[in-house]
Design a protein that fits this description.
By secondary structure, this protein is of the alpha+beta class. The chain has helices at 37-71, 76-82, 100-111, 119-149, 151-181, 192-246, 251-265, 271-279, 323-326, 385-390, 404-418, 470-483, 496-502, and strands spanning 311-318, 328-335, 340-344, 358-361, 366-367, 374-379, 395-400. A seven-stranded antiparallel β-sheet has the order 4-3-2-1-7-6-5. It is rod-shaped, with a radius of gyration of 41 Å.
Length: 509
């Protein structure tokens, strides 16, 4: 038996994770192992079929014996044919002496020498011996149905869960490649960060199904030993009854049947099962092997840089509609390398599907400066996909960190992701006020991301200061038109922050 690796400790901050056992050819490192639990259920189902055929052979033997008892010696050829060689699924039985295969071989040799039988013996066989085997046959059928509706169904659930996990792993591989080739521009549902969390959710569900199926199969395995002992004991009981009713026949017949019965009685109840385990140990589940653990599972692109957030943690955000009444609400946020700011209820990947409640594509947003642990982001929520985003309007989202230092950390990462043109101003130093450092009387202001095009052809030139030429005056007029402020005839152009404040484009407090 191969050695099994010990369970690895869970990662910091992770919740209690289910573990699964490596059995047979299953690898604990693979997200979707090659080993199929239906193989175990299948071989056990096949073994039940072998037992059913074995009991069927004995039933046929007794039935044929009953007929032969009526038709005497020449009918015993039919008896011999009822236990034809080889047995179906005969490889399930130990071929050495002392097992089921040896028992059938002994029955063949003794049946050849039987010549006569009596009508009374035929009646006794029909009324007392065959019902024992009929009941045993029914028990084997019920056991087969139990295995089909129990362990086999669990194996199908494992296969379905593995297919779902594999589909997400393939999607992660596809979109991580897209991320690298497109410069990080990916639709929100295909963000590798979200796909990675989706894999964690489905892998968690898959491991639960695997462990449940494993427990079912172990229980079935353990029950098989006692069940097979019962089968052998029932066969032995039927053979004893058979001997009782044929004992009145000729001495030779009695000796032959006694030999068959003694051969059957010498089979230990655990003989066939223990030898079966020895021959097929690689296909059976080792109950002592450790369970499988998610902490030791690897899959493609697990460490791709696109799935690691630039920054993640808790922030408070004021609700859009009821913000004035409910105030700030805490949530878990992450800025991904795809330049999305995602909002979640928490960082739990296992309790429920980690779906983003809010997704802001930062290059399309405008970022306000930090003011007393707060900063604003203006943009569209793209968490509903392309169709939902098309009907969305720009909203201002007010965020609040626990400390001003945390606010600056978030602001810096978000600003770098958004780009220099989408940030209203550089963050002030920790020692100065966010307002006074910019000489702005109002709250932090936004600057329009893109100035509208200005038509300059055919416009009259305005005279500026003596040091400015016609082209300088025309450039000043164009810049004034782009900022929405009337051009000045003299003096420098006002800063973007001052202009935005005068036009009323400030952040909400």
């Amino acid at each position: 038996m191969s050695a099994y690796p010990p369970e690895k400790a869970g990662q910091p901050g992770s919740h209690a994770l289910p573990t699964r056992t490596t059995t047979g050819t299953m690898s604990d490192d693979e997200a979707v192992p090659d080993a199929n639990p239906s193989d175990t259920a299948g071989i056990l189902q096949e073994r039940l079929q072998a037992w059913k055929h074995a009991v069927g052979y004995i039933e046929n033997y007794f039935t044929a014996t009953e007929k032969v008892e009526k038709a005497h010696a020449k009918e015993y050829e039919k008896v011999l044919k009822s236990i034809s060689d080889p047995l179906k699924e005969g490889h399930h039985f130990d071929q050495s002496l002392g097992g089921i295969a040896g028992m059938f071989e002994n029955m063949r040799s003794n049946t050849q020498g039987i010549a006569n039988s009596h009508l009374e013996t035929a009646k006794n066989i029909s009324g007392s011996v065959l019902p024992i085997l009929a009941r045993l046959h029914t028990e084997i059928k019920n056991k087969s149905k139990e295995l089909t509706h129990g362990a086999a169904k669990g194996a199908k659930n494992v296969t379905s869960a593995r297919n779902e996990t594999q589909k997400y792993i393939e999607a992660l591989g596809q979109y991580t490649a897209t991320f690298d080739s497109s410069g990080g521009k990916i639709d929100p549902p295909n963000d590798p960060y979200l796909l990675h969390r989706g894999i964690q959710y489905r892998l968690h569900k898959q491991v639960l199904e695997e462990n449940n199926s494993r427990q079912d199969l172990i229980a079935v395995q353990d029950n098989f030993q006692s069940f097979e002992a019962h089968v052998i004991q029932a066969i032995q009981q039927s053979m004893s009854a058979f001997l009782q009713y044929v004992g009145g026949q000729a001495e030779r017949q009695k000796a032959m049947y006694t030999d068959m019965t003694s051969t059957t009685q010498r089979i230990p109840p655990e003989f066939e099962w223990m030898n079966f385990l020895h021959r097929n140990g690689n296909l059976m589940i080792d109950p002592s092997s450790p369970k499988r653990s998610m902490s030791s599972i690897t899959y493609p692109n697990q460490d791709h840089h696109s799935i690691k957030p630039l920054i993640a943690g808790t922030l408070e955000r004021k609700s859009r509609a009821l913000g004035g009444l409910t105030g700030y609400k805490t949530g878990y946020y992450a800025v991904t390398p795809s330049k999305y700011l995602h909002q979640f209820d928490d960082d739990d990947n296992f309790r429920k599907e980690p779906t983003a409640e809010l997704s802001l594509y930062l290059p399309d947003c405008t970022i306000g400066a930090v003011s007393d642990c707060r900063f604003n982001v203006k943009g569209k929520d793209s968490s509903k996909g392309k169709v939902g985003t098309a009907f969305q309007m720009n909203h201002e989202f007010s965020f609040k960190a626990n400390t001003e230092e945390d606010a600056f950390k978030w602001w810096k990462v978000i600003s770098e992701a958004a780009g220099a043109f989408n940030v209203t101003s550089e963050p002030p130093s920790a020692a100065s006020s966010p307002v006074s450092s910019r000489n702005v009387s109002g709250p932090p202001a936004y600057v329009e991301k893109h100035a509208p095009p200005v038509q300059t052809q055919g416009l009259p030139l305005r005279q500026g200061p003596a040091s400015a030429g016609p082209q300088s005056a025309l450039g000043q007029e164009a810049r004034s038109a782009g900022s929405g402020v009337a051009p000045h005839s003299a003096g420098p152009i006002e800063s973007p922050i001052t202009v935005a404040t005068e036009t009323g484009k400030g952040l909400p407090p």
